[in-house]
Write a structure and sequence with these properties.
Layout lengths: L6 E6 L2 H9 L13 E4 H8 L7 H10 L4 E4 L2 H12 L8 H13 L6 E7 L3 H6 L8 E5 H10 L6 H10 L15 H12 L3
Amino acid sequence: MPDAAWIAKLLVTDTGPLITLAVADSLACLLYPAVPVHIPDAVLYEATVKSGSLGAENIVLWMQEHPDAVRPIVTQTYVNFQTLRSHNPLHRERDLGERAALEAIRYGIPLASEERAVLLTEDDRAATVLVLPDDRQRLITMTTFDFLTGLELAGRIQSAEAIYRLAADAGRNAARIAVLQAQHERAQQAVDHLLRQKS
């Protein structure tokens, strides 16, 4: 008897995908799969804290326009950071988004036995830095490149390359790294189903 299909939940683990899609005016791509987009609070903070930063304004507007679909994950990491900043506005922390993403991966999205969290990242660091050995069975790592080429194959967008060109024209040199193809067949099938899913 074949294994049951996995159900995928989407979690953006770093600012990279948000910035790349924002500067290419393509954040709507994240909403093409008919599932909520989960994003750790500190990742959103890092992407938008400086209003003049590349893509920041578009990310804020996108969040405001889609409050039901874009779901920030509250983390203790970010709460602690904001508490310290309330006492010292100049307080900074290294790897804030990464630490919040790790917390979100472990505790932020409840997963049933047939569910997997799909980690959307700009590069493959999530596979080596964020994903702990105990968590690997419940997670699927996918890069922005995997995501966009998957949407193109699913007929949801015309061209992943066109989005990368728009990002480059806006000054964003986005990484084009593929990691999904090296993963388990069930993981690839779960992602394919996610990318083809329509409301």
